[in-house]
From TrEMBL:
Localisation per UniProt entry: Endomembrane system
Main location as per UniProt: membrane
Recorded topology in the membrane: Multi-pass membrane protein
Organism annotation: Streptomyces hiroshimensis
Protein name listed in UniProt: Membrane protein
UniProt lineage: Bacteria, Bacillati, Actinomycetota, Actinomycetes, Kitasatosporales
Keyword Membrane assigned: yes
Length: 242
């Protein structure tokens, strides 16, 4: 509800640009991590299933793939986000030095940036002065660098989320290949994996405001191709007695 005397206020609990953007990025990363887990583990266990139907062998291969993939995803995400965070912190440190040594030049720079966003010269100057008076570093970080100083990405959170997402995705093909009776393991796994990939394609498309049909088809086709290739390779190796 708006207050007519003080102007409109934000609704409590309503997502706004910064928080919504971060939330969507986390959701997208989770969907992509789960998708990778589904495809990687499905390709592995289906390939092994082409060579043998021994439940113990399938379980061992699936668990090894799950752990290796989830750890790899977590380590990669940790390194990537750590590099991003280091770059953000370096940029903020530079802004602090520039604000301390050349405040007038920084005020002129902020004014020009605001003018570039469509404000008139006088209004841009007034806004720049008010933002600088309130929190100069935050103003430059958000307008110039696109960084929220209080919302820097956490490498540990990103690594943990990637680990969990990949693990969750991997569990589906692993359980689908080891739980059913031998004569239906492969079809159950293929159907479960394709359904999961269709769902992941739909989710990633919706979060990116893209048409879901093409993403769903592309995702399912990629997974089907991966399973077909690994199953073929496993069958050839099994027939050769390798």
């Amino acid at each position: 509800m708006s207050d007519d005397t003080n102007g409109p206020t934000q609704h409590e609990g309503e997502p706004h640009e910064g928080a919504l953007g971060n939330r969507l990025n986390r959701l997208r990363a989770a969907v992509l991590g789960a998708n990778d887990g589904v495809v990687s583990t499905a390709g592995l266990v289906v390939g092994v299933a082409g060579a043998t139907d021994a439940r113990g062998t399938l379980l061992t291969a699936g668990l090894a793939g799950l752990l290796a993939g989830s750890m790899s995803m977590a380590a990669g995400e940790y390194v990537s986000v750590s590099t991003q965070r280091d770059s953000e912190q370096a940029a903020l440190a530079l802004e602090r030095r520039e604000l301390a040594t050349a405040p007038q030049a920084e005020l002129d720079e902020l004014t020009a940036l605001l003018e570039g966003k469509g404000l008139t010269g006088d209004l841009a100057r007034e806004v720049a002065e008010q933002l600088t008076e309130h929190d100069a570093l935050r103003a430059h970080a958000e307008v110039e660098l696109g960084i929220d100083p209080d919302e820097l990405t956490s490498p540990w959170q990103a690594a943990g989320a990637s680990f969990l997402a990949f693990t969750a995705g991997s569990l589906l093909p692993l359980l689908a290949i080891v739980l059913p009776p031998p004569y239906v393991r492969l079809p159950v796994t293929v159907v479960a994996v394709l359904a999961a990939l269709v769902l992941c394609g739909w989710g990633s498309a919706r979060m990116g405001d893209a048409p879901p049909g093409r993403a769903m088809l592309r995702n399912a086709a990629g997974g089907a191709l991966a399973m077909a290739v690994t199953y073929g390779a496993g069958s050839l190796l099994g027939a050769a007695g390798v």
